[in-house]
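Changelog-adjacent note: as of this version, every example in the card shows the full chain rather than a window. The one below runs 140 residues end to end.
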Amino acid sequence: MSQALLTGLARTTRPQTALRRFLALDAVVTGANGLAYLAASGPLGEFLGIDAALLLELGVFLTAYAAGVAWLASRPQPPALGVKLVVDLNVLWAVLSVVALFAWLEPTTAGLLWTPMQAVTVAGFALLQWTALRAGTATR
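Full-length structure tokens:
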């Protein structure tokens, strides 16, 4: 991903600002997803064809994870090790989502669409965060 594209997506030429924005967006989207799973695991489980108890557990994890990512986004200069951990966990989440779809989930049509869509979204966050982190370390 080019610096120009990164600059356009983040609407800033400062890599640290771009990184913080991508982390914040990840935290908001992940937190909203986690809260939805917590608040409506039963109805969402039926709609997606995913066990409500699993969604509830994922909701707890995602809400806590989002809080950690939000904390990183709030730092003036997010620590590289923390950002790398977020990137790695995002990639792992994306891969496991697709594996789960074929290995043990029996989703409805909605779940069959939702699972890869959220996996691509999370993988996109990982790519944006990694690119911004690399751009920030290259300019120092």
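Structural remarks: The chain has a mean pLDDT of 90.
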